[in-house]
Every structure is written in structure tokens, then in C-alpha cells.
């Protein structure tokens, strides 16, 4: 077991020394907003009573990867399948790059392969939270409008 700071863990992911699931990558990108444990503790204490929300990522399968859509993203469904009973699948023949170029309102995690993750967020955070830093492990920018 090795302890790593959030930026170090992301570097290990980029160098393919470790693997991170998309939710953990998202949270590490959020933790990168804080330069010290003290700063994180102050932030969490200050916003502790603000509330939180439960998210259900919705997976959109593209021709060359997939996107985990999160609440607030322009492609996030109005009525997501929280239980898995509806068996809703979202897919497109478009590429991830096409979807990124066409979009304007993002709250998503893009996965091209097991070691290629990116977080794109340009909506305000709720409950006085902080958005993750937008980090892309394969350095694609998709000519983003962000």
C-alpha cells in the first residue's frame, strides 16, 4: 500500500501504474482544489450543514468510448433510471470528440479506454461545494469551448 496525494495519484494513473474508477478519479480531481489537509478540513467544516445530493451517473456509449453523464449536463436525462429496472441504454454512433465539440453544458467523465479519463464541468457546483479541476489523462482537448 502506498499513500499518494491526489495529484500524485492522478500522475500514477497517467503513467498507467494504477487504475482508478471514474468516480474515484472525479473525487481526486475535486480534492486537487485543496493544497493541504488543513485547507480541506476548513472547507468541509464550513460547508458541512449545506447539504448534499445523490447522483446517478448515466452512461452514454459512443463509438470510441463512453461518457458518464452527471446531473446538470445537457445530455443528462430528465428521468434517470435510478433502480436499473427500466434497462435504459444510451448510445450513439458519434465519437466522444464529436459529442464534446457539439456540447456546451458539461458535467461528465469521459473514458476513452481504461487509462484515459477526463473530467469536464462548466456548471456551478451546488451546496457550496467545489467542482473538480478539469483534468484529462490523455491530454485531448476536443477543441473545447470551456
Automatic annotation (TrEMBL):
It comes from the Eukaryota. InterPro entries: NUDT19. Keywords: Hydrolase, Magnesium, Manganese, Metal-binding. The keyword Metal-binding applies. GO terms for cellular component: mitochondrion. Its cofactor is Mn(2+); Mg(2+). The keyword Metal-binding applies. GO terms for molecular function: hydrolase activity, acting on acid anhydrides, in phosphorus-containing anhydrides; metal ion binding. Belongs to the Nudix hydrolase family. This is NUD19 protein. It comes from Penelope pileata.
